[in-house]
Amino acid sequence: MEKILKTLTELYGPSGEEETVREKILELVGKRADSTFTDQLGNLFVLFRGNAPKILISAHMDEIGIIVTNIDENGFLRLAPLGGLSPSILTGQRLRFKSGLIGLVYHEKINDLKELTWPKLYLDIGQKSRSEAEKVVAIGDLACFDQPFVSVPGSRFLAKAMDNRAGCAVLVETISGLKRPLPQEVCFVFSVQEELGLRGAKTAAFGYEPDYGLAVDVTRVGDTPKADNMAVSLGLGPAIKVKDSSVITHPLIRRFMVDQAKNLNIDYQLEVLERGGTDAGAIHLSRAGVPSGALSIPCRYVHTPSEMVDSADLENAVNLLSGLLRVPWPAVTEGHL
Predict the structure, then answer these.
(1) Which candidate in 63, 173, 185, 194 is catalytic?
(2) Is 194 noted as a catalytic residue in this protein?
(3) Structural domains present in the chain
(4) What's the gap between Cα 12 and its chain centre?
């Protein structure tokens, strides 16, 4: 798991430019599936054919980043966010473009941190003029954080893009260990543009027409000093989502996930996320509705250059997801809760 997570987190892949991540995942799992294909938005589907029902398991490939909006006469770049990103997080950070170009973010003179807004930020790529800068970067170019993967004491990992390469790693590990025959058809989708509004999952669900949906993503925690009051902590097991801003987990799916965690003796937590959402939010609203849930990986410092996860939570997420796919999913009848 550590090797896969390091590989995936260190890849370049902001929203809209996920192809490097997609190619690596296809290399890792493509030969395991009955078929693989990519849709017109760039979602990667890894299909294990079988009998009804059809289950869609989604993890998004994209990470937060920035887009270049202007280049001034001195060669400094102006920026706008791709996804939920605070200006205060960016100051002093290195950003990497697809070309490999590295720049440093800083800000104009301010008297108070409250004055630090996006128009105050600039990216220094070491060029002396607009004409020099335009030789290596263009308006509309994207960049992501430039941070290495680090294993820290306590069996925990730090990296950029844990949101959601951690979820992608869980899917890769699950696919690698999947044993056939499966009791139903399963399609894993590695989705695009989640950070911009669950866009890839929306088209993926519409096209595949699943009977059930499950998102695998990170979630915030409440175990750091003076954190928000949230009953999720690092190291206490993957979280089974109850609600977030985008979805209320279908009660039948939630109970099914809890029962399986108990049957497999896997530690788990129940998650109520007051702000934020996952691909489940788009999947469950597809067509006439898809009963959906989410398996969440506790993560500290979400949407920063160094997000932290626990190795045991990741392993137990793989164990629970694998267990969910080894058994028939409960039948959902009209109005059945």
Answers:
(1) 194
(2) yes
(3) 2-63+160-325 (3.40.630.10), 65-145 (2.40.30.40)
(4) 13
